[in-house]
């Protein structure tokens, strides 16, 4: 079976306005390391935008979205998680010459640079030391930008998962990106979103993937009969759920799949909850913004 990293779209997009709220049980707190927390900012809050076309959105709604291009060609996405750092998939960086990669924040349309757009280059890259190119296990990486960005009414950071043992099965989550709008279609010029359900481990195991390719560091989201999915070019981008404070938090990184929206082949995502200690180790003293009302 061919494993497709999705760094080259969304298929069958339609907007779903109601996202599931995740109810947290404080007694289920996982004792783990977490990145330092800032006290002068909040994460996971964007501005609702109404755009003709339904499935289109803007960076004002997801102000932590980052597009990645090399030699002028868009190929991956990421999420701003501190003033200096971007979270993405390891396979978006493995083997690439980082000097040729351009990072753009606060820009929805790839065909023209908006007045709000912030352009950065890469200072350094940290790819998970156990990233495996065979099955994309540990498909996670951190980019340190050459200069920090200011957090304001336009640019905000993504929220990391709550530090709790949460079962997200059945929750409706949102994927955002500029990837292909179909398996055999070009990448999108405009930022788009699609809602997909998070599948149980049993449903994931019953899908068409070989079992030795799925690990505990991954989860499935999508429809077993196809319909909607992330696609090539969405790699590294975020999968969001709505948190207990009304904010959006990133619980998954778009990683891989077979084709796009193929029946019995849901999308595979890196399980971010498993990497909070790793993020702490590699963000150094840099802090992350907390959700609103959580201070």
TrEMBL record:
The subcellular location is: Secreted
Q: Which domain of life is it from?
A: Eukaryota
Q: Which SMART domains match?
A: Tryp_SPc
**Any one cellular component term from GO for this entry?**
extracellular space
For this protein, the record's Pfam families field holds: Trypsin (PF00089)
Gene Ontology biological process terms in this record: proteolysis
- For the Peptidase S1 domain, which residue ranges apply? 51-284
Q: Which GO terms describe its molecular function?
A: serine-type endopeptidase activity
Q: Which UniProt keywords apply?
A: Disulfide bond, Hydrolase, Protease, Secreted, Serine protease
Which PANTHER family is this protein grouped with?
Answer: SRCR DOMAIN-CONTAINING PROTEIN, TRYPSIN-RELATED
Quote the protein name from its UniProt record: Peptidase S1 domain-containing protein
Q: Which organism is this entry from?
A: Vespula germanica (German yellow jacket)
């Amino acid at each position: 079976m061919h494993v497709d990293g999705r760094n080259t779209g969304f298929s069958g997009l339609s907007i779903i306005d109601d996202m599931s709220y995740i109810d947290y049980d404080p007694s289920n707190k996982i004792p783990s390391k977490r990145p330092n927390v800032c006290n002068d900012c909040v994460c996971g809050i964007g501005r609702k935008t109404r755009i003709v076309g339904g499935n289109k959105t803007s960076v004002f709604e997801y102000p932590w979205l980052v597009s990645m291009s090399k030699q002028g060609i868009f190929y991956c996405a990421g999420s701003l998680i501190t003033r200096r750092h971007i979270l993405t998939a390891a396979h978006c960086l493995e083997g690439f010459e980082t000097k040729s990669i351009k990072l753009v924040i606060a820009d929805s349309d790839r065909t023209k640079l908006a007045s709000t757009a912030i352009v950065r280059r890469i200072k350094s890259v940290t790819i998970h030391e156990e990233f495996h190119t065979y099955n994309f296990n540990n498909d996670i990486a951190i980019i340190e930008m050459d200069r920090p960005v200011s957090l304001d009414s336009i640019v905000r950071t993504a929220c990391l998962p709550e530090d709790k043992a949460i079962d997200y099965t059945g929750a409706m989550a949102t994927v955002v990106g500029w990837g292909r709008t179909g398996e055999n279609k070009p990448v999108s010029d405009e930022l788009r979103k699609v809602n997909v359900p998070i599948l149980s481990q049993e449903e994931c195991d019953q899908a068409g993937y070989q079992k030795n390719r799925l690990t505990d560091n991954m989860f499935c989201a999508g429809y077993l009969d196809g319909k909607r999915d992330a696609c090539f070019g969405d790699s590294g981008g975020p999968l969001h759920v709505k948190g207990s404070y009304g904010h959006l938090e990133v619980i998954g990184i778009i990683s891989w799949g077979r084709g796009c929206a193929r029946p019995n082949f849901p999308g595979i995502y890196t399980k971010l909850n498993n990497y909070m200690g790793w993020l702490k180790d590699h963000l150094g003293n840099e802090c992350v913004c907390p959700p609103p009302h959580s201070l």
